[in-house]
Design goal:
InterPro entries: START-like_dom_sf
Number of helices: 3
Largest sheet: 7 strands, antiparallel
Oligomer: single chain
Strand content: 25-35%
Protein name: ATPase
């Protein structure tokens, strides 16, 4: 059977979202944003300050209209890689399976960086593919706007990188 028509292969591919954006800022400045758990919980614009507290090793981000979101840091490799487990939302508690959100910051020739994000593990959110595909759909669209918000925030608050010929 051809993988292009194999429903299991199609679902496996949908288990993750991968997006990227070029940002005209140094890796260290992008890192300052990416390392903040849940910076992408916003209304389309990254806040300079967020309502963030810690309960042990769990970061709790409170958004005024969206509620509380909980994250556990999985790995930090400054300034290139950060991974967080999205463990609780207003829609799921910490006992519910969660997704992994990973960020990579890659320097570009000529200056600036490419910020890549992969969110994976959607198929573990529910036994019924229709249920987890619905959640994935919202996040798929969301990452496009969140990466654009990250770009605007970081470029606004950082000097442009030096371009090399």
């Amino acid at each position: 059977m051809d993988d292009a028509t194999d429903p299991e292969a199609e679902l496996a591919e949908l288990d993750r979202i991968a997006r990227q954006i070029d940002i005209d800022a140094p890796a260290e400045r992008v890192w300052q944003l990416v390392v903040r758990p849940g910076w992408y919980i916003n209304d389309g614009e990254v806040e300079a300050e967020q309502d963030l507290r810690y309960e042990g090793d769990v970061a709790v981000v409170r958004h005024p209209s969206l509620g509380e979101f909980r994250f556990r840091t999985v790995e930090l490799d400054e300034p290139r890689y950060a991974a967080f487990r999205w463990i609780g939302t207003p829609f799921r508690d910490e006992a519910t399976p969660s997704t992994l959100v990973e960020f990579w910051i890659d320097e570009r020739d000529g200056g600036g960086v490419t910020l890549r994000v992969v969110e994976s593990g959607f198929s573990g959110l529910a036994d019924d593919p229709a249920a987890w595909l619905k959640e994935r759909e919202g996040n798929d669209k969301g990452w496009l706007s969140e990466l654009a918000a990250a770009k605007a925030f970081v470029e606004k608050s950082a000097p442009a990188p030096t371009r090399h010929s």
